Each structure stands twice: as structure tokens, then as C-alpha cells.
Amino acid sequence: MAIKRHQTRSVEVGGVVIGSSAPVVVQSMTNTDTADVESTSEQVAALARAGSELVRITVNNEVAAKAVSRIRERLDQQGLDVPLVGDFHFNGHRLLSDHPDCAQALAKYRINPGNVGSGEKRDSQYARMIELACEYQKPVRIGVNWGSLDKGLVARMMDQNAHAENPLDADQMTREIMVTSALESAQRAIELGLSASQIVLSCKMSGVQDLIAVYRELANRCDYALHLGLTEAGMGSKGIVASSAALAVLLQEGIGDTIRISLTPEPGGARTQEVIVAQELLQSMGIRAFTPMVVACPGCGRTTSTFFQQLAQQVQAHLRERMPGWQERHPGVAEMSVAVMGCVVNGPGESKQANIGISLPGTGESPSAPVYVDGEKTVTLKGEQIAEQFIQLVDEYVENHYR
């Protein structure tokens, strides 16, 4: 069943279209020091190759601002045209003004209206960033974060709520402030000359139910393109589960035009994990396809050998490794399904449902592994080279069926 998308305006970001009927876009953010041109360029390249369609980088000081154009040049030299988004807090008005090469090299500016200044200074500094976005014809993400709300807006709205006939409770009020901050900031940007088709909104919170409630309200009250993400989602399985729980609900309701999974990396872990999780979330929901899906059983007492687990891991890694080349030569290959099953209970049935599948022998079963192609048994593999032979069969299937 196709999901009916909330109708939003389309926004073009360095050749990538966000919103309207465009596919939901996957983005990520580096955690390197942007002043370190080499390490930042390497991480952006890794994220882009993993499938991140936009990459955000921190621009927090003069040295970082000077590095942006050099990072862009390095990526271009590698043939990587992934758009760079500049993440600005506190001093973005000055950095963009003083470093035109940075302002030009970035494909989009991210502004947090809660920390561009306070009072009259806030108004002028926010206005300066919008004016520069207009000058360089760059879209802007107005990104409200519950941990850095504009103090003036909070005070004003809390006072209004205190005098209301039916005041909102604390949680409701926080959500309303988030939505109001985003919408008022967007309206001010339009008054300053920015087009509504150059605006993306986000209202990031760290609570699953809070995030769902805020985005539902935002979607009801505007047609700006919306960026989804659970901020400070956490590490490992907690971060993955929390982000998926929140974003899946919104995506199922057709809300969201671009997403990021904000994972805290494990020590020494790859930053690219957040890209893979975002892709797998979208693919599991049937929203987009990025790489062939591997169906594998969880294992039980019938599968005391770990061979099927190792093979499933090998196949999945192989598919991801081959996808960049396959995408160019084999259109539609991302829709392929591969089954790696561990015993005779569900093995043959699941393998028949996949494009290509293998049913490995469980404990006590005959040491043979039938392979099914498009529902038909084609060969039975035996011996020590089952893994290599099956991966070869997968490659042959791709070559023969996706041309």
C-alpha cells in the first residue's frame, strides 16, 4: 500500500530536490573538526558513498569557514557532488559575511532561531543570514531545537499561556513554542525576501511522543518541506529504536521530506551507520529502495551452527559493496530480495518468496543447501565452498535479470 505524502513545497538543494513528490532524502552530519580539511573531506566522502544525499558540516569559527571551499574542492576532485549544508550557531551572520567563498560553496544554510542572538541583536543577525541566503540563492533550514529555544519567545508565550482561560500544560506549551518558533521564523524569512520554496523546517526533540506531536501540528499548519530527526537519540540499539519509533509513525502518516538518524557513534564505530539505518528504515517501510534486502531467520535450537549467520552477513556486506556499480549498470537491482535461511522449517518457503534464496541445513539435516531462483529450485550446493558459490549465483542473477 502506497503511503500518501503530506503535500509540501519542493526545495532544490544543490541538485537534490526535497519535498513535494520527490523521494524522502537521507542526510547525515560529520563529527570531525571542519577546520581539518583532510579528515572532514574523508568523512563526507564516506557518508556520501554510503548513500547520504546531503551532508551537514559544522561551521563554527573562522578557520572552519575558510576550510569549507577547500573541502568542496576535494570532493569535486573525487567526483562527489554531494551537497554540503553549513550548520551555524551564534556567529553565522558574521562567518557568512566575512567568508564569501564559504557562503558560495555551501548548498544550504542551517539556522537555529534560538541562538542567533537576543533582542534587537537577534533580529538583525537573523536578518543578515537570510539576506545572505537571498544574495547567494541558497535555501535555508530553519531548525528549532527544544534544548535551545529563543528565551524571548519562551517568556512571551509563557506569559500569554498564564493568562489564558484554558492554559496548556508544560509539555503542550513546549511543543507549541517549538512550532510557533519555526513558523514565525519562516514568516520573517519570507518578509526579508526568501521564497517559501527555499525553506525547510525542523523541530527536533529528544522524546518520541513529543516529536510525533510537534510534527503532526507542524504538518497541519504549513506546507513547508519538513526535515525529520530525533535529536540526541542516543547510542546503539537505543538510538536506533527511538529514532525508528518516532520517524516510522510520521513517515507512515506521510509527514517528512528528509530524514537523519542522529546516532551517538560507538567508540571507534563508523559514522556511516546513521546513513545505513536511515536507508533501512525507509526500505523496510516500502518508501524507497537502496540495496537488495537480505531475509534471514533469527536462529533457534535447530540452527546451532553459526554458518547461516556468517553467510547472511557476508551476503549483506557483498550487496552493499557492489551497489555503487550495480546502480549504474543494473536498474531496479535495489528492489531485489535475497533469502539466507538456517533450516528446513521455513527455509524453502522463504527462499521461494525471494528473488534468490538458499536454505542451509539445520542441526541433524542432510548437509546440502538447495538454492531457489524466482520460486524454482535450481541447484543444490554442498561442500566447503557453499558461501562463495552462493554469492557467485547472486552476482549471476543480477547480471541476467537487471539489464
Quick recap:
Helices cover 46% and strands 18% of the residues. The chain is built from 13 helices and 17 strands. Pathway: Isoprenoid biosynthesis; isopentenyl diphosphate biosynthesis via DXP pathway; isopentenyl diphosphate from 1-deoxy-D-xylulose 5-phosphate: step 5/6.
Key words describing this protein structure:
single chain; 403 residues; alpha/beta; TIM Barrel; Sulfite Reductase Hemoprotein, domain 1; iron ion binding; iron; oxidoreductase; metal-binding
Order of helices and strands: EEEHEHEHHEHEHHEHEEHEEHEHEHEEEH
The major β-sheet equals: 8 strands, parallel, barrel
CATH architecture type of the largest domain: Alpha-Beta Barrel
Q: Beta-strand percentage? A: 15-25%
Q: How many β-strands, per DSSP?
A: 17
Radius of gyration from CA coordinates: 24 Å
Oligomerization category of the chains in this entry: single chain
Number of helices: 13
Helix content: 40-55%
Task: Look up the CATH topology of the largest domain.
Answer: TIM Barrel
Which residues form runs of ≥5 with pLDDT under 50?
A: none
| Distance between the first and last residues' Cα | 27 Å
Round the mean pLDDT to the nearest integer and report it. 96
Please tell me what the overall shape is: elongated
What's the CATH class label of the largest domain?
Answer: Alpha Beta
Supply the helix-strand structural class.
Answer: alpha/beta
Q: How many domains, as an integer?
A: 2
Spatial strand sequence of the major β-sheet: 3-4-5-6-7-8-9-11
Enzyme class: oxidoreductase
Function: Converts 2C-methyl-D-erythritol 2,4-cyclodiphosphate (ME-2,4cPP) into 1-hydroxy-2-methyl-2-(E)-butenyl 4-diphosphate.
EC number: 1.17.7.3
Pfam families: GcpE (PF04551), GcpE_C (PF26540)
